[in-house]
Amino acid sequence: MSDPVLAVEQIGFNYGAKQALSEVTFSLSPGAYYALLGPNGAGKSTLFSILCQLLQPQTGRVTVNGINAAKKPRQVLKQIGMVFQQPTLDLDLSVEQNLAYHASLHGLSSAYTKQRIDEELQRFALSDRRKDKVRSLNGGHRRRVEIARALLHQPAILLLDEATVGLDQSTRDTINDHLRQLCSDSGITILSSTHLIDEVRPNDELIVLIKGQIQLQQRCEEAMQAQQLDSVQALYRHFHQQGEQ
Ligand SMILES: Nc1ncnc2c1ncn2[C@@H]1O[C@H](COP(=O)(O)OP(=O)(O)OP(=O)(O)O)[C@@H](O)[C@H]1O
């Protein structure tokens, strides 16, 4: 097995008296797609906030490619691309301007920015929309721009927090296809949170988080076989019930 690209060890986080995460431990391998599944309030957003350093864990540690996030936060942030639950594009800027602004925050040179914007817009079939204002794009295209933006600085890990919420089924399918392709083509690791169980595919690595605790980390197909269950829904229900006890 290759060294993990991300290791989360014994992380705990409370909001005052409210416990959001307790002794959360898991690791991600390079080039794999991980679906983080959990009901509302399970702690998914808190975990993402810690991974992209908006919050500091109160216990435990996060390392990215062996670098401790608490000790070298900037080096770790360079390795992470983030797509938040709420859209964060400026609607009155063009697609290209939104991407260029993000690239400048990451300190990319103008020549490299142009190259990366070209590459990512091509990857997401958006090259013909580069001069259009984001306001004129539909929801699926806006999400694709956000994913392209998160990839500009070539992170090792892409984090997506409920990235397909509010999109119709066929747009969700297209984006999900793109994301799986991204892992196999470019070797990037994806951690994508969802409560939409139908988005999880048999070949995905599955991480189930319930009430701030990890209930399962295993390839989805293997977990179904181990539990003798024939669907992701049944598998999730099983671990959900276990977590609620
Ligand atoms: N700022 C806050 N203050 C107090 N409690 C909070 C705060 N943010 C989250 N919580 C609580 O922490 C727990 C984890 O919340 P979190 O938002 O991380 O879960 P989630 O899995 O992302 O849920 P959702 O799917 O609804 O976004 C929940 O019980 C939530 O009520």
TrEMBL record:
Domain ABC transporter: 6-236
SMART domains given in the database record: AAA
InterPro entries linked: AAA+_ATPase, ABC_transporter-like_ATP-bd, ABC_transporter_ATP-binding, ABC_transprt_ATP-bd_su_PQQ, P-loop_NTPase
Keywords: ATP-binding, Nodulation, Nucleotide-binding, Transport
Superkingdom as given in the UniProt entry: Bacteria
GO molecular function: ATP binding
Family statement: Belongs to the ABC transporter superfamily.
Protein name: ABC transporter ATP-binding protein
